[in-house]
């Protein structure tokens, strides 16, 4: 039987302040993702996009809680959680395209209930561990990992009616190079495993991925979600992102990371987020995302 992948697009741009990231799912499709994965003998079902809707003028205010567009993000997260939930329930692999990283709130809400002990690999320049209290921006795309740990506004932590979605000791962050003070405190307090750029430079990507995999296996995880923020890569190679940070993971290292994950056979769901075609150069970032998906699903040169 052919393995089955279900694509869900999430044209969400309300979790941050640079317009255009809502076109990410189109850019990724345009870069040929379906054709590419079909060649790997997967059966692909593109479920289309989640409807986000435009917030009214009265919704733009943060209502004093430092959570921009809380209502609209909550609504979209609920819809996404339902759609992802259906995909997992029927035994297909959920592959979600963003949209900004706030969508991980809904993705994880739909996935985590199907696992007793879900692992998460968070491939990102950032920790996304803020709350309304610690965020310097009020942008919800800087909060999804905290929300999934059950930390943050109850409207967000209770998406799909349960909380927390994941455990701190089952998370590995890879590529971090920009963390806010509150995020650093949370990382230390919860003992979250983080491979910063320092460790990637020092150990090399092979060792980092092998350690990450061993770490998750030792936690007896029964599935692993890959949440890949394209800003984890260096902005020279993935320029189409809203919050670029210099000194990132290279395209080659990222391919290697995806290949090692594929060999591990641990990944049970994935999302690729923050692709913003307005900020991109000739759809380069979406093309990089699709190439990485190729490796994640087993593409080989020979
Ligand atoms: N998913 C992202 N690109 N997150 C960037 C977050 C940036 C910053 N830490 C903030 O909370 O505003
Ligand atoms: Mn990021
Ligand atoms: Mn992120």
TrEMBL record:
Cofactor(s) required for function per UniProt: Mn(2+)
EC code: 3.5.3.1
Keyword annotations of the record: Arginine metabolism, Hydrolase, Manganese, Metal-binding
Catalytic activity: L-arginine + H2O = urea + L-ornithine
Record CDD domains: Arginase (cd09989)
Free-text comment on the cofactor: Binds 2 manganese ions per subunit.
InterPro entries the UniProt entry points to: Arginase (IPR014033), Ureohydrolase (IPR006035), Ureohydrolase_dom_sf (IPR023696), Ureohydrolase_Mn_BS (IPR020855)
Gene3D superfamilies per UniProt: Ureohydrolase domain (3.40.800.10)
Pathway membership: Nitrogen metabolism; urea cycle; L-ornithine and urea from L-arginine: step 1/1
Pfam family, one: Arginase
One of the record's GO molecular function terms: arginase activity
Classification via PANTHER family: ARGINASE
Family: Belongs to the arginase family.
UniProt name for this protein: Arginase
UniProt source species: Metabacillus endolithicus
Classification of source organism: Bacteria, Bacillati, Bacillota, Bacilli, Bacillales
């Amino acid at each position: 039987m052919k393995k089955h992948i279900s694509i869900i697009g999430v044209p969400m741009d309300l979790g941050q302040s640079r317009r255009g990231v809502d076109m990410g799912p189109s850019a990724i499709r345009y870069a040929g993702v379906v054709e590419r994965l079909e060649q790997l003998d997967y059966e692909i079902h593109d479920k289309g996009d989640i409807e986000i809707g435009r917030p009214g003028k009265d919704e733009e205010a943060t209502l004093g809680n430092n959570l921009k567009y809380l209502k609209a993000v909550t609504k979209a997260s609920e819809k996404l959680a339902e759609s992802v939930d259906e995909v997992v329930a029927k035994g297909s692999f959920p592959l979600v395209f963003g949209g900004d990283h706030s969508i991980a709130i809904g993705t994880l809400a739909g996935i985590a209930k199907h696992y007793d002990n879900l692992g998460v690999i968070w491939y990102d320049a950032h920790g996304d561990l803020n709350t309304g209290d610690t965020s310097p921006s009020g942008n919800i795309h800087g909060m999804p990992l905290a929300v999934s740990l059950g930390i943050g506004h109850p409207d967000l932590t209770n998406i799909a009616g349960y909380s927390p979605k994941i455990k701190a000791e089952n998370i590995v962050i890879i590529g971090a190079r920009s963390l806010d003070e509150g995020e650093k405190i949370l990382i230390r307090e919860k003992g979250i495993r983080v491979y910063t750029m320092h460790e990637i430079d020092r150990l090399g990507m092979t060792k980092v991925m092998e350690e990450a995999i061993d770490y998750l296996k030792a936690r007896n995880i029964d599935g692993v979600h890959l949440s890949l923020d394209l800003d984890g890569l260096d902005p020279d190679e993935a320029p189409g992102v809203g919050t670029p940070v210099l000194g990132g993971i290279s395209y080659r290292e990222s391919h290697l990371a995806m290949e090692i994950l594929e060999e591990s056979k641990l990944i049970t769901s994935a999302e690729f987020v923050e692709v913003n075609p307005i900020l991109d150069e000739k759809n380069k970032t979406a093309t990089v995302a699709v190439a990485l998906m190729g490796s994640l699903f087993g593409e080989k040169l020979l």
